[in-house]
Amino acid sequence: MTRIALQITTGMEGKMKRQLMWMILLISMWHSPLQAQSDFTTPIVEQLENQGYTVSTVKRTWLGRILIVANTDETLREIVLNRKTGAILNDQIMVNPYAGPPTISRPSLPSNSNGPAATGPDGPAGGTGGAGHGN
Predict the structure, then answer these.
(1) DSSP string of 98-130, one letter each residue
(2) Mean pLDDT, rounded, for 18-47
(3) Contact by Cβ (8 Å): 54, 44
(4) DSSP reduced 3-state for 8
(5) In a domain, 131, yes or no
(6) What is the reported pLDDT for 18?
(7) In this structure, is the dihedral angle defined by the CA atoms of residues 6, 10, 13 and 19, taken in order, positive or negative?
(8) Which structural domain, as residue segments, surrounds residue 82?
């Protein structure tokens, strides 16, 4: 009976050692993606800042990808990276919804000293043709 109790005890110790080994391995693997994430994002964030963007967010998505959000006064940019390889999966540039309304410049019309002239299909004022005019 003593042998059985001794074998069960040694079996438990071996099992606990294996569990501890697996825990250490899993913890070390868990830490490595965080290190890889910063390695991939640092040059991209620096490049965006050199291009005039302000980086507002660097985070992990629920799919495990890395999302970088940056903006200027006019544009909003979202870059999605694969966290294991650093490959750019998506890069979208959109109009910044937080910016003011866009300014539209209209071309100026040439000025006419006689005022606006009515033009028709055959030239200024009173050509022939024209829908709905005439007898």
Answers:
(1) TS-PPP-PPPPPPP-TT----EETTEESS-S--
(2) 70
(3) no
(4) helix
(5) no
(6) 77
(7) negative
(8) 2-102
